[in-house]
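Quick one, tokens below. Sequence please?
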């Protein structure tokens, strides 16, 4: 009898009541719709879908990973552009990102530990040669970065997740004697560099900015013309288990989340297995971070590689730590394909185990910078430092189809599409509100059914559109 009751309960929980409403929000290439409430549908009885019907199957009782949130990076560039805006425009910007009603509800922030390419110059927090870190100071960050970080954190409140990443150790700590163009951390500076992270956390927290975690190294296999540093998988593993991990614990920071890799999906399985198969290193790891730039070689994005790592190590969290559209061109501010790149990645990433999604710069200027090495890129929002105006790109709205509706603490739930014409992923917010995001990258509209068990709601998605469907479970 109890098993029969359990079956009825699960069926009830996974099937909306007949007549239950679905609210549809749409952003579409060939319209003015941008996160616009465009339609409503309602569930009717559907026992067996037909092969001729396009369906999105959602299984609300099949819960997967817990969502950490969504956000972007406050770099030096973002903060410097923000400082040029008038107060009313600054407020509009903050609302656009961090207010869940007026904007898209970001709660994750990333920043650079001293300089990166999106800084106006190279700098560190110590004087050159100071192995003991006696001159450590974050005074540089007080001018631009910290004011914007604090303003964003105030808007986010207690759901804020703030983490930091270094692009390179100081020049004297490296075998090349340069912060730019790769090179490696010299073994005699491993402990000093580990303590550098500690000092960063301590100084930021003195400023009232709680640090949730850190990544060990941004893009540890890329020799870039900007700040960069190379670690093999074994070198990152050993630096973590012998220096950074013990130093965090020694300083009472065992609660800080450590994210390894922080690079593309191409080599993610090799990096993860090397580090996580070592118990002494793995005990310090909260998650594996990754970027989306593996298609630099001309191939497709390797979304499934993140899913492989998630399947191998389900106790370890997957975190998307950076993505942006490269090669800035102001003629492409409204290029729809740039937004579709975000939608495609976010759907695939959550379907492959990611718990949080972090964009790159939250704000850049009218030139795609500032950037001290000419690596100009797009951001979801650009601020013109001459006119003071904001430009919202399609990427902003595509991210918003997730971040505005999916709450921190939501569960990713199982879902699948019956046709390759659509991509989708689904979430269950606390309180049993279901969020399904659907992407149509085709030049034709698609009629489909949102199917949950024995009920379904008919929906039409325009060509080149993204939709968020919001509905309630009993």
């Amino acid at each position: 009898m109890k098993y029969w009751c359990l079956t009825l309960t699960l069926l009830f929980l996974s099937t909306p009541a007949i007549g239950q409403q679905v609210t549809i929000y749409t952003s579409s290439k060939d319209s003015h719709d941008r996160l616009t409430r465009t339609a409503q549908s309602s569930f009717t009885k559907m026992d067996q879908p037909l092969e001729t019907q396009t369906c999105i199957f959602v299984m609300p009782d099949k819960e997967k990973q817990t969502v950490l949130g969504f956000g972007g990076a406050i770099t030096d560039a973002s903060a410097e552009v923000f400082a040029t805006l008038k107060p009313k425009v600054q407020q509009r910007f903050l609302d656009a990102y961090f207010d869940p009603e007026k904007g898209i509800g970001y709660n994750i922030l990333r920043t650079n530990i001293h300089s990166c390419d999106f800084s106006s110059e190279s700098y560190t927090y110590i004087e050159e040669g100071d192995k003991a870190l006696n001159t450590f100071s974050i005074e540089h960050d007080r001018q631009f970065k910290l004011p914007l970080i604090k303003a964003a954190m105030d808007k986010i409140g207690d759901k804020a997740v703030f983490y930091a990443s270094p692009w390179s150790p100081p020049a004297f700590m490296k075998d090349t004697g340069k912060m730019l163009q790769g090179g490696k951390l010299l073994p005699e500076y491993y402990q000093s560099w580990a303590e550098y992270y500690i000092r960063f956390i301590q100084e930021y927290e003195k400023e009232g900015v709680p640090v949730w975690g850190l990544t060990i190294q941004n893009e540890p296999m890329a020799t870039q013309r900007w700040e960069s540093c190379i670690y093999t998988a074994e070198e990152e593993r050993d630096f973590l288990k012998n220096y950074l991990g013990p130093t965090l614990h020694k300083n009472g920071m065992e609660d800080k989340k450590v994210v390894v890799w922080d690079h593309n999906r191409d080599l993610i399985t090799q990096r993860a297995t090397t580090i996580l198969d070592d118990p002494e290193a793995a005990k310090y790891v909260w998650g594996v971070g990754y970027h989306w730039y593996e298609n630099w070689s001309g191939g497709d994005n390797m979304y499934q590689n993140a899913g492989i790592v998630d399947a191998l190590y389900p106790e370890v969290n997957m975190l998307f730590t950076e993505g942006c559209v490269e090669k800035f061109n102001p003629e492409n501010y409204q290029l729809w394909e740039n937004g579709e790149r975000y939608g495609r990645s976010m759907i695939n990433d959550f379907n492959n185990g990611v718990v949080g999604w972090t964009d790159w710069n939250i704000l850049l200027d009218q030139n795609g910078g500032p950037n001290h090495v000419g690596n100009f890129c797009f951001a979801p929002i650009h601020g013109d430092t001459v006119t003071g105006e904001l430009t919202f790109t399609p990427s902003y709205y595509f991210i918003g189809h997730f971040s505005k509706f999916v709450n921190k603490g939501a569960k990713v739930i199982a879902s699948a599409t019956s046709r390759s014409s659509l991509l989708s992923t689904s979430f269950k917010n606390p309180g049993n509100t279901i969020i399904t995001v659907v992407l149509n990258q085709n030049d034709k509209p698609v009629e489909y059914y949102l199917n949950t068990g024995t009920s379904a709601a008919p929906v039409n998605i325009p060509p080149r559109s993204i939709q968020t469907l919001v509905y309630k479970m009993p």
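Residues 20-65+413-472 form a domain with the Immunoglobulin-like fold (CATH 2.60.40.1180). Residues 233-250 form the longest helix (18 residues).
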